[in-house]
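Tokens for Lipopolysaccharide assembly protein B. Go.
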Amino acid sequence: MDAEQILEIAEWYELHDKPDEAYEVLTYGLSWHPDHTGILVTLAYSYIDKGKPEEAKRIAILIEDEYSVEAKMLRAELLLAENQILEAEAILDTLEGEADANLCLNVASLYIQADHFSHGLLWLQKAALFAPEDEDLIWTIAECCHNIGKNEEAIHYFNILIDQQPYSADSWAGLAKVYFTQELYDKAVEACDFALVADAGLYDAHLFKAHSLYQLGNYEESIKEYRYVLAQGDYFSEYVYAY
């Protein structure tokens, strides 16, 4: 049985939620193909999933292919798990010359999962260079910018989304949320109004309009918006009071 067949069988077991069987197939395959990068990488990830990072590191050391993208991603993930950000960054930066949108997204995901959001944002922005029309990607970048306090950049990306889809209620509500954070309450109300033109029942638009009106001293209209939001049965009051 060749290495690719072994990997296909292991993948089948993983897809059918049978990690132990997948592990057995990989260890069997390793006895036949001890130097195969794909088997070694997959086995290392199996150990990571089992909560055995030391075993994963032991397997990673056995990988001889220094140019394998999979191996680099594995080593970087192990380093990030130990908060060795500079060492991981040095490895991941070598991928830039051969990166495409999917690889950039995978690198971004590694950084974000390790709570290194600024590094993740850079790779999300690199991904956007390959897929500038990908609305889900642009949305993710806008949210990431907002979450790490880069609100001017967040506004830029939400405006890109609005230019692409002028009647996107979610994009207008996202923009309103950023304006609210910046204490630009008039602009937040305006953005909410545009969102509500597109979707009159959008919770976030009503919520941030309520918050913004309250900050502007328009308590009567603010209360109307709060009452609308709280009347929605599937909307948690804790979220309403979070801001």
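Residues 81 and 170 are 34 Å apart (CA to CA).
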